[in-house]
């Protein structure tokens, strides 16, 4: 049951509407074995179907795992330079198709083309180039074991990696996992998020031209059947998951039962702390970037708890609100748009539920009501930037990940007090410190409980940095050479007596 590959032309959005996309298993484009399909709907044009994708279930997962296992020995045995060549060739194709991927992901996710989708498709290409570049760095060590001994370690692939992706920045998350796992000699079964699978299928197609069949398999389906089957499959040697803390807990539990290693990149409620010496426009811009307003706040690293020092509270907030009021909410494909649409009705209802809760409180003031910024005539899941002022760190609005363009602002006076509030969270993914006094800033950076702290800047991750969370924001690191070695290789130790006929040196006791 083969179906056509996704179209390769730089088709306009209209050309793709109604199109059936296949999944990629064992080098073929296939339907689900039970023939079920799912509509992929547009976040920015309510009711518009962008295409249909197969709804994979356990038998499809099994088929993909078998394909990945069959391809593993050949791929793992290649010299690293051969894998490097393939990944660098893919990177070249990704750069060449970056605009097409950006437009497709803008449609798929609702993220604005100019502010989000283009930078994301570039980052994807950078990640393939980076991991292609470091593919030859998967090295072992030799121990100084003495004459006649060769004791060395090799780093081997973990095996078949199951990767489960979210919808909020699918290309970038795919870029954290796919080239890193492949560079280290693993083969993969990747599950795209049900809400934004199209660019992942197009990515699979671009990769396919450079990889042997079965090395990369890409499935589309729902979490409870396809995702759960990947996590539980005994042929999946490692699960690399990015998504919510709630689902991460389930994935970690299921994989843990069969003692399969997992990496979990989960949610966040990151603090952004402004000291009184930083009440300036550059910091306002940085704070709003850190909040990821231009991704509608749908980012795990969003600095969604803004702590403003009382001395500058009103002035900073006024400047921030004035800047946010200039943001253009609109069609993701429009070059003028700063903020696109939320992903779907469920997410829209969830986020607006938090907003309603905030509005209903007597003790909070609404510094900016985002609903007023949505132009009439747009029929998608749009919501403008929303800011709640003089919030308390103990409120649900300040504790839970809203995953929408909603920021809570909390006043503070004392460094100890604000660091205690920043750390009073079950999350620990990112943090942003805004302070011209670098001694004070770095003291805070060291004391904040999170995997990533930025000082006086709020942009995205740097390719090559080890990225990941602490506390309930995750386990493990990705995005770097170290992360690749930690997440996608395992060490084997080999001890050799070089001259077998001679007396053996005394060694340490065996356990
Ligand atoms: P989600 O947890 O609902 O889904 C993520 C993926 O898991 C999807 O592919 C889904 O189909 C799958 N899934 C769902 N149930 C499953 C199950 N029982 N077993 C296996 N797989 C299952 O998350 P989402 O709504 O797609 O994404 C938003 C969340 O992701 C937010 O919480 C965000 O913070 C987090 N996120 C984290 C990072 C990070 O790097 N830490 C990056 C992006 C998103």
Automatic annotation (TrEMBL):
It comes from Geodermatophilus pulveris. Belongs to the aldehyde dehydrogenase family. The keyword Oxidoreductase applies. Pfam families: Aldedh. InterPro entries: Ald_DH/histidinol_DH, Ald_DH_C, Ald_DH_CS_CYS, Ald_DH_CS_GLU, Ald_DH_N, Aldehyde_DH_dom. The lineage of its organism: Bacteria, Bacillati, Actinomycetota, Actinomycetes, Geodermatophilales. Residues 29-494 form the Aldehyde dehydrogenase domain. The keyword Oxidoreductase applies. It comes from the Bacteria. Gene3D superfamilies: Aldehyde Dehydrogenase, Chain A, domain 1, Aldehyde Dehydrogenase, Chain A, domain 2. GO terms for molecular function: oxidoreductase activity, acting on the aldehyde or oxo group of donors, NAD or NADP as acceptor. The active site is at residue 265. Keywords: Oxidoreductase. This is Aldehyde dehydrogenase (NAD+). Residues 1-20 are annotated as: Disordered.
């Amino acid at each position: 049951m083969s179906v056509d590959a996704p179209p390769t032309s730089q088709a306009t959005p209209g050309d793709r509407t109604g199109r059936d996309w296949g999944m990629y298993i064992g080098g073929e484009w296939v339907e689900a074995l039970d023939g079920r399909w799912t509509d992929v709907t547009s976040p920015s044009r309510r009711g518009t179907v962008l295409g249909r994708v197969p709804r994979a279930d356990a038998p499809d997962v099994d088929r993909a795992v078998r394909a990945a296992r069959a391809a593993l020995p050949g791929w793992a045995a290649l010299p690293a330079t051969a894998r490097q060549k393939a990944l660098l060739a893919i990177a070249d194709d990704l750069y060449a198709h970056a605009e097409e991927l950006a437009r497709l992901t803008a449609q798929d996710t609702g993220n604005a083309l100019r502010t989000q989708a283009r930078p994301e498709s570039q980052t994807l290409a950078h990640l393939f180039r980076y991991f292609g570049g470091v593919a030859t760095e998967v090295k072992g060590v030799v121990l100084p074991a003495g004459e006649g001994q060769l004791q060395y370690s090799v780093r081997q692939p973990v095996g078949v990696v199951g990767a489960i992706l979210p919808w909020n920045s699918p290309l970038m998350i795919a870029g954290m996992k796919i080239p890193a796992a492949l560079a280290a000699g693993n083969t993969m079964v990747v599950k795209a998020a049900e809400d934004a699978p199209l660019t992942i299928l197009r990515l699979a197609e671009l990769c396919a031209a450079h990889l042997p069949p079965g090395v990369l398999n890409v499935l589309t389906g729902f979490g409870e059947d396809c995702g759960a089957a990947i996590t539980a499959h005994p042929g999946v040697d490692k699960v690399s998951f990015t998504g919510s803390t709630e689902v991460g807990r389930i994935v970690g539990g299921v994989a843990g039962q069969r003692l399969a290693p997992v990496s979990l990149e989960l949610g966040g409620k990151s603090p952004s702390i402004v000291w009184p010496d930083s009440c300036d426009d550059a910091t306002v811009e940085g704070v709003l970037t850190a909040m990821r307003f231009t991704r509608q706040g749908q980012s795990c690293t969003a600095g969604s708890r803004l702590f403003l020092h009382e001395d500058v509270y009103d002035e900073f907030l006024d400047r921030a609100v004035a800047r946010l009021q200039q943001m253009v909410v609109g069609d993701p494909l429009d070059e003028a748009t700063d903020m696109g649409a939320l992903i779907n009705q469920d997410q829209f209802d969830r986020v607006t539920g938090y907003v309603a809760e905030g509005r209903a409180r007597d003790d909070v003031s609404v510094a900016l009501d985002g609903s007023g910024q949505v132009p009439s005539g747009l029929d998608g899941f749009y919501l403008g930037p929303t800011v709640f002022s003089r919030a308390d760190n103990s409120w649900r609005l300040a504790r839970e990940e809203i995953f929408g363009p909603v920021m809570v602002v909390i006043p503070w006076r004392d460094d100890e007090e604000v660091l205690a509030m920043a750390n009073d969270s079950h999350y620990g993914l990112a943090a942003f410190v805004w302070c011209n006094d670098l001694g004070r800033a770095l003291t805070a950076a060291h004391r904040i409980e999170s995997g990533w702290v930025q000082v006086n800047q709020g942009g995205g991750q740097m390719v090559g940095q080890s990225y990941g969370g602490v506390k309930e924001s995750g386990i493990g690191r990705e995005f770097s050479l170290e992360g690749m070695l930690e997440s996608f290789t395992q060490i084997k130790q080999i001890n050799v007596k070089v001259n077998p006929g001679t007396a053996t040196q005394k060694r340490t006791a065996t356990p």
